[in-house]
C-alpha cells in the first residue's frame, strides 16, 4: 500500500464515519428506534448510489450520442442495459430531490397518475416507485414510508448524503459505505435480535476458503446478503464479472431481511433470485429446487432451533443421512442443527463446496446427531473445520465453528480433514466484540491453501507482506527492513512507535489551548496508522515463524490434518481442539517450586487479613446490638 493508497483509505474511513454520525444524529433527534430508521436511511443511501452509477454511465453514453439541433439526444432506459446501472427518470434523480423547494406543496409536483405530491416524503416515495419500475429485482423492495418523516429531517438527510466527497472517491465506494451502514445498524438493532447480519470477517473466511468462481451459489438463510456481496468481490478480484460467472439464489424467511438483501445486492451491482416468506422456510421448502444442483452453498443459519415440525420436514426431503433426534411425541425435532448440516451437503453437486457457521456443540453432539456425523465423515467430504472464539456476533457471545465440505477434493486432500483452532486468534474491537483483521484472515486462509498444496498463493502472501512493510516503513522514514526478517520489522516499528508516542505526549503538553484539540486529533491519526503497521508486521512474523517459505506442518494448539481413520478413532468428533491439542506453554524462567511457596505465603497472609477483618465487623455489629 503506497502513500496515495493510505490517504485514499483514510478519506473513505472518514467519509463513512461522517455520514454515519450525521444519520445517527438525525435518528436521535427524530426519537425513532434503529429498527424504524434502518430501512429508510439505507433506501436513501441506495438512491444516492443509484444516482452516482447513473451519472457515470450517462457520461459514457453521451460521448457518442447522436445530435439533434446541436444537442445530444436524451439518454433512454435501453442505454443502461448491461452496464450495472439503473436508468433514473428525472423525478428519481438525487440531484432533483436535493434541489426541491422548501414548500413542496406549492410547487405543483404530481406523480405518474397526475396526483399531487404535497410533501418531501411523498416525493421521495414516488422516486422509490420510479426506481422499482426500472428493475424487476427491486419491485416491492424499496422503502416507501417517507411521508411518515418530518420534511426537515428528510431534507437534512438528503443533504448529508449528497456529500461531495462521494464523487471524489468514486461511485463504487458506495457499496462499501452501504455495508458500513448495514454493519452499524446491526450493532444498534442487536438488542432487538438483529439476526440479519453475519459479521464480515466470518463471511470473508467462508468465501475465501470455498473460493467461488463459476456456477450456482445458494444461501438458504441469506439474511442481508453478505455471502453474495463477498462472493461478488471475490469474483471481481479474480478478474471475473460476478453476474456472468455466478447465479445467485437465496431463501430468507423474514421479509424485512430479504428486502435488505435485495437492496444490498443492487448496491453492489449483483442480480439474483431471492425468495422470502413461508415458501422460503428452508425446513419445509426447497424453494428453488436446487437439491444436488449447487456448485457452492454458504450460510449462517439460526443455531439450536427447536420445535421444527417433523412431518413437513420429511416431506421436503434433502436428508441424505436420515433424521436427527425427535422428541418423545415424535412431532418436532429436539434440535435443527443437523437438519441444516444435512441440507448443505444435499444441495451440493458431485464437485460442490459448502461453508457455513454452526453452533460449537454440533461438532460432537451425540445420539442421532452422531449417527449423521459418522455417515458424513465417511463420505470424505468434510474438508476444513475452524473453531471461532467468543464475541464474534452482535447478538451472541458464545463461540461457533465454521464447517467446510468439498465433494470434489483433489488428490492432495483425499481422505483428510484440516482442523484449525482459532479461538485465541482474533482482534478485539471493543469489550463485547471480536473479529479477524484482514491480515489475520489472510493468515488463516494461507493455512488452508498449504493444506491444499497451493504454494503459489502462500508465497504471494509473503510477497504482499514484504511489499507492504517496505512501503510503510519507508513512508515513516525508516530503513533496515529486509526480505522476510519480519521479527526485525516488528522491533524496528515498535521502537519507532514508542518514540512517536513520547513525541506526541510532549507536543500536546506544550500546545496552547486553542491548538491542543487539533494536535490530539492529528497525533491520534498518526499513532493509529503506526499501530496498524506494527500489527501487520506481527501477523507476518506469526505466519512466517510457523510455515516459513510454505512448508505445511501441524502446529500444536493451532492446526492439524487428520485422516478419516483418526476421526473415527475419536468417535467421529469434529471438534478442532480434540485434534490440534494445546500449544506448549512458554518457559517464563520462574522456578515452579519457589513460586508455589510464594503463592502459599500470599494466600496465608490474605486469609489472616480476612479473619481479622471479620472479627472487627463482628465486634462492630455487637456494639450496635445486631
Give a quick precis of the structure.
This protein has 626 residues and is an alpha/beta fold. It has 21 helices and 15 strands.
Describe this structure in words.
The structure is a single chain. With 626 residues, the protein is an alpha/beta fold. It has helices at residues 3-30, 34-63, 94-98, 120-132, 151-161, 165-169, 173-189, 200-210, 226-237, 242-245, 255-267, 310-316, 337-347, 368-379, 438-451, 455-475, 486-510, 513-547, 564-569, 577-580, 592-623; strands at 67-68, 71-72, 215-219, 246-252, 272-276, 294-299, 308-309, 332-333, 348-359, 382-388, 400-406, 416-422, 427-430, 433-435, 559-563. The strands form four sheets. It has a nine-stranded mixed β-sheet with strand order 5-4-3-6-9-11-10-12-15. β4, α11 and β5 form a beta-alpha-beta unit. α1 (3-30) packs across α7, α2 packs antiparallel against α7 (173-189) and α8 runs parallel beside α15 (438-451).
Topology:
Layout: H1 3-30, H2 34-63, E1 67-68, E2 71-72, H3 94-98, H4 120-132, H5 151-161, H6 165-169, H7 173-189, H8 200-210, E3 215-219, H9 226-237, H10 242-245, E4 246-252, H11 255-267, E5 272-276, E6 294-299, E7 308-309, H12 310-316, E8 332-333, H13 337-347, E9 348-359, H14 368-379, E10 382-388, E11 400-406, E12 416-422, E13 427-430, E14 433-435, H15 438-451, H16 455-475, H17 486-510, H18 513-547, E15 559-563, H19 564-569, H20 577-580, H21 592-623
Parallel strand pairs: 3-4, 3-6, 4-5, 6-9, 10-12
Antiparallel strand pairs: 1-2, 7-8, 9-11, 10-11, 12-15, 13-14
Amino acid at each position: 500500500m503506497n502513500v496515495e493508497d493510505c490517504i485514499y483509505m483514510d478519506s473513505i474511513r472518514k467519509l463513512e464515519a461522517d455520514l454515519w454520525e450525521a444519520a445517527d444524529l438525525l435518528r436521535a433527534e427524530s426519537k425513532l428506534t434503529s429498527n424504524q430508521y434502518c430501512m429508510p436511511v439505507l433506501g436513501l443511501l441506495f438512491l444516492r448510489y443509484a444516482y452516482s452509477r447513473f451519472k457515470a454511465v450517462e457520461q459514457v453514453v453521451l460521448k457518442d450520442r447522436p445530435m439533434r439541433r446541436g444537442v445530444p439526444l436524451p439518454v433512454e432506459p435501453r442505454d443502461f442495459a448491461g452496464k450495472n446501472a439503473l436508468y433514473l427518470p428525472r423525478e428519481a434523480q438525487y440531484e432533483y430531490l436535493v434541489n426541491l423547494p422548501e414548500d413542496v406543496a406549492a410547487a405543483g409536483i404530481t406523480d405518474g397518475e397526475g396526483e399531487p405530491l404535497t410533501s418531501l416524503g411523498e416525493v421521495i416515495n414516488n422516486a422509490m416507485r420510479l426506481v422499482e419500475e426500472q428493475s424487476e429485482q427491486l419491485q416491492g423492495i424499496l422503502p416507501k414510508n417517507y411521508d411518515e418523516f418530518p420534511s426537515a429531517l428528510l431534507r437534512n438527510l438528503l443533504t448529508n448524503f449528497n456529500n461531495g466527497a462521494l464523487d471524489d472517491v468514486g461511485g463504487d465506494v458506495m457499496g462499501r459505505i452501504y455495508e458500513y451502514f448495514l454493519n452499524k445498524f446491526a450493532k444498534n438493532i442487536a438488542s432487538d435480535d438483529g439476526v440479519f447480519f453475519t459479521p464480515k470477517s466470518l463471511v470473508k473466511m467462508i468465501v475465501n476458503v470455498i473460493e467461488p468462481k463459476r456456477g450456482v451459489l445458494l444461501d438458504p438463510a441469506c439474511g442481508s446478503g453478505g455471502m453474495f456481496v463477498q462472493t461478488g468481490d471475490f469474483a471481481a478480484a479474480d478478474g471475473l464479472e460476478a453476474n456472468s460467472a455466478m447465479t445467485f439464489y437465496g431463501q430468507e424467511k423474514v421479509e424485512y431481511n430479504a428486502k435488505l438483501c435485495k437492496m444490498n445486492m443492487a448496491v453492489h451491482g449483483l442480480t439474483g433470485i431471492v425468495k422470502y416468506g413461508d415458501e422460503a422456510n428452508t425446513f419445509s421448502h426447497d424453494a428453488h429446487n436446487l437439491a444436488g444442483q449447487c456448485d457452492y452453498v454458504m450460510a449462517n443459519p439460526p443455531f439450536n432451533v427447536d420445535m421444527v415440525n417433523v412431518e413437513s420436514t420429511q416431506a421436503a426431503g434433502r436428508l441424505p443421512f436420515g433424521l436427527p433426534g425427535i422428541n418423545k411425541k415424535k412431532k418436532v425435532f429436539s434440535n435443527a442443527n443437523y437438519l441444516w448440516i444435512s441440507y448443505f451437503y444435499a444441495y451440493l453437486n458431485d464437485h460442490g463446496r459448502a461453508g457455513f457457521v454452526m453452533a460449537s456443540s454440533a461438532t460432537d453432539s451425540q445420539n442421532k446427531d452422531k449417527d449423521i456425523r459418522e455417515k458424513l465423515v465417511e463420505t470424505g467430504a468434510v474438508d476444513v473445520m475452524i473453531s471461532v472464539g467468543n464475541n464474534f456476533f452482535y447478538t451472541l457471545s458464545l463461540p461457533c465453528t465454521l464447517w467446510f465440505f468439498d465433494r470434489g477434493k483433489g488428490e492432495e486432500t483425499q481422505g483428510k480433514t484440516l482442523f484449525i483452532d482459532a479461538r485465541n486468534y482474533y482482534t478485539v474491537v471493543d469489550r463485547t466484540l471480536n473479529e479477524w483483521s484482514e491480515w489475520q484472515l489472510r493468515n488463516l486462509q494461507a493455512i488452508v491453501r498449504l493444506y491444499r498444496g497451493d504454494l503459489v498463493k502462500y508465497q504471494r502472501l509473503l510477497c504482499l507482506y514484504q511489499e507492504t512493510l517496505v512501503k510503510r516503513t519507508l513512508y515513516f522514514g525508516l530503513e533496515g527492513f529486509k526480505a522476510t526478517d519480519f521479527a526485525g520489522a516488528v522491533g524496528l516499528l515498535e521502537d519507532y512507535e514508542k518514540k512517536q508516542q513520547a513525541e506526541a505526549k510532549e507536543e500536546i503538553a506544550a500546545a496552547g489551548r486553542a491548538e491542543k484539540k487539533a494536535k490530539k486529533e492529528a497525533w491520534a491519526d498518526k499513532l493509529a496508522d503506526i499501530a496498524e503497521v506494527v500489527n501487520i508486521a506481527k501477523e507476518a512474523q506469526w505466519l512466517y515463524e510457523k510455515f516459513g517459505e510454505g512448508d505445511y506442518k501441524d502446529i500444536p494448539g493451532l492446526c492439524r490434518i487428520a485422516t478419516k481413520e483418526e476421526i473415527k478413532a475419536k468417535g467421529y468428533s469434529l471438534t478442532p481442539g480434540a485434534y490440534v491439542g494445546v500449544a506448549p506453554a512458554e518457559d517464563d524462567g520462574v522456578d515452579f517450586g519457589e513460586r508455589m511457596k510464594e503463592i502459599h505465603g500470599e494466600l496465608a497472609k490474605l486469609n489472616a487479613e480476612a479473619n481479622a477483618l471479620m472479627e472487627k465487623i463482628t465486634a462492630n455489629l455487637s456494639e450496635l446490638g445486631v
